[in-house]
Amino acid sequence: MDRLRLRAGVAATLLMPVFLACGDAGPPEALLYEVVRTLPHDSSAYTQGLLLHDGVLYESTGRYGESRVRTVDPASGEVLRDAPLDSLYFGEGLAQVGDRLIQLTWKEGTARVLDLETLDSVGSFSYGGEGWGLCYDGTQLWMSDGTSTLTRRDPDSFALLGTLDVTSGGVAVFRLNELECVDGSIWANVYQRDEIVRVDPATGRVTGILNAAALTRDAGRLGDPEAVLNGIAWNPEAGTFYLTGKLWSRLYEVRIDEPGG
Length: 261
Description:
Layout: E1 5-7, E2 29-30, E3 32-40, E4 47-53, E5 56-61, E6 68-72, E7 79-84, E8 91-97, E9 100-105, E10 110-115, E11 121-126, E12 134-136, E13 141-144, E14 149-153, E15 160-165, E16 167-168, E17 171-172, E18 176-182, E19 185-190, E20 195-199, E21 206-211, H1 213-219, E22 229-235, E23 240-245, E24 250-257
Parallel strand pairs: 2-21
Antiparallel strand pairs: 1-3, 3-24, 4-5, 5-6, 6-7, 8-9, 9-10, 10-11, 12-13, 13-14, 14-15, 16-17, 18-19, 19-20, 20-21, 22-23, 23-24
């Protein structure tokens, strides 16, 4: 794909019609993005969690019997290390805390703790409800469960610290999925939508929406209801994001800017 600047429209279908009594500070910004590079991605990967560390992608994939955590060279798509899960587990979100990875599971109530370098299992945590997305802001973990509420968790014990209701224009934003914590904001995929939302963790307010429908079209999986946008990894050195989707054959490095930025 050529270097493009794409204006993100705010799709009305993003938001479920459940109005909350809250003092929301107005509509979110429509974010702009530029595609820097289009890279290969394993089209058999049901991407659930994505992060970048020292130039290497760490990817968690889902589906029973196919779930795994692996390290990937973002430029070539080559799998460098692969650690499959037991077939009883459905892999979900992934976060890095120091020299550890924490991987959620969907309905099993287990967060797996892995060694960052070897991907060997070194422990686990238990939690109630479903696990969807996970990110670490340097102090605490943020976790999604497919609702409009994020939970804050202790990175050492996984104990529940609090909850955050996410709204946009006073409307609850449901199906929050894969998360990435970046410079004081939480970025979240909205499951089965082409939008990524930027959330203020202090208020729960959506401050920006990126419409990635052009990436979904370019990925060539419009006819597959499971091949949805999912996967956000921040590259602090370049100031870019890596974005992909479940079963996509392409990974996009993009630069996101505010309007007028």
